[in-house]
Amino acid sequence: MADSDAGGFTEWVVPAVAGREAAVTRLMGLDGRGELGSAHVRLTASALGVSERTVWSWVSVARREGRLSARAPARVGVSADVRARLAVWGGNVAAVHRELVAEAVKAGVAESVPSLRALQRAVRQDLSAGERAGLKGGEAARRRFDVYGKRPRAHRNACWEGDHKRIPVRVSLDGAAVCPWVTWFIDVATKAIVGVAVTPHQPARDAVLAALRTGISRQGPYGPFGGLPGVVRVDRGKEFLCRTVERALGAFAVPVDDLPAYKPYRKGTIEALNGAVEEMLLVSLPGYTHRARPAEAYRPDPVEGLLSYPDFVKVLLDWVAWWNTEHHPAGLDANLTPLAVWEADPAPVEDVAGERLAFFAMEDDGRVRKITTNGISWRRRAYIAPWMAGHVGMRVRLRYLPHYDGQIEVFSTEEWGRHLGSAYLAQAATLEQRRALSSVREKKARALKADLKAAEELRKARYTATTTAAVPRPRRTVTSSQAEAEIARSRGADLAARALPDLIPPREPPASWARPVVRSRRAADSQTDAGQAEAADGGPPGAAGVRDDSGGVLSDGDC
Fold this sequence. Notes:
The protein is of the alpha+beta class. α1 (16-32) packs antiparallel against α2, α1 (16-32) packs across α3 (52-65) and α2 packs across α3 (52-65). The protein has helices at residues 16-32, 38-48, 52-65, 80-88, 93-107, 116-126, 129-137, 139-143, 205-216, 243-250, 268-280, 309-325, 338-344, 354-357, 431-459, 480-493, 521-536, and strands spanning 2-4, 9-11, 160-166, 171-173, 176-178, 181-187, 193-199, 232-234, 256-258, 369-370, 376-378, 381-384, 395-399, 407-412, 419-425, 546-547, 553-554.
């Protein structure tokens, strides 16, 4: 026991509930030897913070019933059936209790169901707060009550984490509003953003490779952060786990740590960055889609009031530079910036030569091509460059960036690895042509959407609302003549039903083909009669053939 006079209270080292069993065991041992006295009871009561009368009551219960601890109150337990019902009702204990009462009343054992308060008490005692939240809100709600550890602090470039994030900001691109995506990598030890790539649509492997290239490179605006990481941690995104990214990083002996799906806490550094950029930057930009709106304000911002795509990319890259050089992320020592932590880290940085990184992660189709007077043919299009003059007939191999066909890199086959130069698409469409083509495609898409919407309205059956458990009636009644007319129109538009298979006769087969033997009806009848007569004279039944010179019978297959 420890007394605290300053606070005016007494702190008990051993609580009465936990210490009763041990104290009563000791007292009963003394009582069995005849040594139990008031001094022992007084000392025990003082240590446990109870009265001497209470201790004597414990001793009396132990003598009479042999029970050393308090009697456990009877309570209702949560069975597997109740847990299943809670899952069905989303954790609603009252709904489960109503269902149990209804079933018990129907079976004639209404008194077997505990009260609602008893069931609620059992759920609180048997199910943790996380389990109750999971029954109501799913796995994401349950995770809020879990405890997560932290990985040990490592050095710079020991591990990178990468992820995609859809930017909830509408920006203007070619007269249309789009929500761009950012693909970035962050160094776990220093919290420095090492590589960034932005796309106006959902990214593919080319965005991953572009972000990795900016992360590994330390030239130009990307330094001083970068170099080769020890491992890259991702979460099963197909763009991160594709063969191209695996080969690109495998060429530098950098493994990719494939984390389990739907477990964002396994890469908490990049997930924290995704949340930070929205709270610290995106919420203040025009076109932010998650901002609070007044009532009945459902229309989005007009395209004219949005940031252009290049302006948004500049704003985002400026924020990345601010994060790396001026911001003080939580978790760093002494409120340092990522740049200060990076420069103070003594771990060496493995750089990659510029000529090796120039063609990082480019794909090669493995074919050998020849330079012609039209340039180099790739994907049925011609690519030309000034350096090709005088090299017609040279055999070359190509490398290209994924999902980008405006430029290719040409290499020599005799001296594989020697870069000859870049080649560009010879007949690239102008900006006006691309805009006109986009307008035509949008019109076709809108027309198809309208047709599909009209077909969906015709397909759906609408019924009247019901107030009783009865079969609903259709809201619209179609007459038999209307049904026949629509069926007839569908048949007229069905090309398969209108097909005429005998309209074009088949061609005459070539003379080299074997043709079936055509026999006349009279010859077939005479041969059948001869076979029957032969069978009547004692020949084998069913041998409807002709006899050869040796007395055998030739079947139809031998003729």
